[in-house]
Specification:
The complex is a heterodimer of chains A (194) and B (201). Helix content of chain A is 31%, strand content 25%. With 194 residues, chain A is α/β, with parallel strands linked by helices. Chain A has two domains: 45 residues; 104 residues. In chain A, α2 crosses α3. Chain A is elongated and about 65 Å long. Chain B starts with 22 loop residues before the first strand and ends in a 7-residue tail after the last helix. Chain B is mainly alpha-helical and 201 residues long. In chain B, α4 packs across α6. A three-stranded mixed beta sheet of chain B has the order 2-1-3. Helix content of chain B is 51%, strand content 6%. The chains are: A alpha/beta (194), B mainly alpha (201). Chains A and B meet through α1, α2 and α3 of A and α6, α7, α8 and α9 of B. Chain A: Pfam families: F-box (PF00646).
Chain lengths: 194, 201
């Protein structure tokens, strides 16, 4: 056993493997993700942990803010909001929330999504809430990003529900274009305003 | 005979055989001895199996030497047995697979673990070695709580984690310390590659 008689801090990596696992399993996803970001060793440990504990799922959204949420057991949710304005109001939430500031919210969202996927190896997108009006400039990049990510979407994405593809003029005068698009292994009808 | 007509008999309570509680004796690596009840020992899978395998009677417990626990010191073992005595008879928790696992630290455990991190570290090692599931759960939860609201930089300080650069430097130092000749060969190989040689030999 290590000699740690006078320490003020806690050398977590010198614990037995089972105990490290026990520490990690009681941490919430925000804490686990921060732990993984400490150094390459902790990232490796966190990755191994997530390979064993497959209970987490991912939810994506662009309503009010670009967000990535992680769903744990008993429907508990931890949600990242990515914003570029520190004074912006974050919508009230029943979830545990963390804010990430970035000048380029899309790049930050994409970086976080790729990082979390590498770390947690999600098999599917559990839910995808897509609001066309909130970030019209980002609709196309977000769709492209999810397309290249190539994960199935487990729940129906909240995209405009129109039965057949036609051009539609909205009441604000903008014209939307409808097209078929694949997300993962499913086909969706998408309505976008450019 | 009806109950009302039954003769009243004075009972000598001292004469009734009382089931005697068995207390096992354990010795830490610094020769401190502890007496622990049979029921408390059941919290530790390791010790429980050990005493079952030994099959000690009450006389054996008194006459034979205390069971030595070689790799745990007296201070740590005292905490472990205090915890076991307080939680004796409680069911051993079973992992329900939930993530994150919800672990509440009871008041008694919180007071028991109001110790410096060095002793907490030894307590976790002891709980792991003795396979005391719930003690491992609560002690590890206390370590996990240290991460609450911390950034990666703060976590590096709390958990004594080297940064990327320090980690890399430590790996390099370890490699060099392990086999200086291997390093020389590697450098020679790189040099030859730069000079355009196809073969090292």
């Amino acid at each position: 056993m290590a000699n740690v008689s006078k320490m003020q801090r806690f050398p977590i990596l010198r614990l037995p493997i089972l105990a490290i696992d026990e520490v990690l399993i009681t941490m919430n996803p925000f804490e686990l993700i921060n732990f993984s970001m400490c150094n390459p060793t902790t990232k490796c440990i966190a990755k191994l942990f997530f390979r064993k504990k497959r209970g987490f799922e991912i939810l994506l959204g662009n309503s009010s803010t670009l967000s990535i949420a992680i769903l744990g057991s008993q429907k508990r949710i931890w949600k990242y909001h990515i914003i570029n304005d520190e004074s912006a109001e974050i919508p009230e939430s029943i979830y545990e929330v963390a804010i990430r500031y970035s000048e380029n919210v899309f790049e930050e969202w994409k970086f976080l999504l790729e990082y979390l996927d590498d770390l947690m190896n999600f098999k599917a997108i559990n839910d995808f809430y897509f609001d066309l009006d909130d970030f019209p400039d980002l609709n196309q990049p977000v769709i492209e990003c999810i397309k290249t990510w190539n994960k199935p979407v487990k729940c129906e994405p909240t995209i405009i529900n129109v039965p057949f593809g036609i051009a539609i003029t909205r009441n604000d005068g903008k014209v939307g274009r409808m097209f078929l698009e694949t997300f993962g292994n499913r086909l969706f009808l998408v309505f976008m305003v450019f | 005979m009806s109950v009302e007509n039954a003769p009243v008999v004075d009972v000598d309570e001292a004469a009734i055989p009382v089931e005697k509680k068995m207390y096992y004796r354990f010795e830490s690596n610094d020769k401190k001895e502890f007496r622990v009840s049979e029921l408390a020992i059941q919290q530790s899978e390791t010790l429980n199996r050990l005493v079952e395998a030994m099959g000690y009677t009450s006389e054996d417990v008194e006459n034979k030497p205390a069971i030595a626990i070689e790799n745990i010191d007296g201070k740590t073992l005292k905490l472990v047995f205090q915890w076991c005595e307080h939680h004796k008879g409680e069911a051993i928790p079973v992992d329900d697979g939930s993530v994150p696992k919800i672990v509440e630290i009871p008041e008694f455990d919180a007071k028991l673990m109001d110790i410096d991190n060095g002793l907490l570290f030894k307590l976790i090692w002891a709980a792991d070695y003795l396979n005391i599931v719930q003690l491992l759960n609560v002690s590890c939860k206390k370590v996990a709580n240290m991460a609450q609201g911390k950034t990666p930089a703060q976590l590096r300080r709390v958990y004594l984690l080297p940064s990327d650069e320090e980690d890399e430097a430590a790996k390099r130092a370890a490699q060099e310390a392990q086999d200086p000749r291997a390093r020389e060969v590697e450098e020679e190989f790189e040099e030859r590659k730069r000079q355009g040689g196809n073969s090292f030999f």
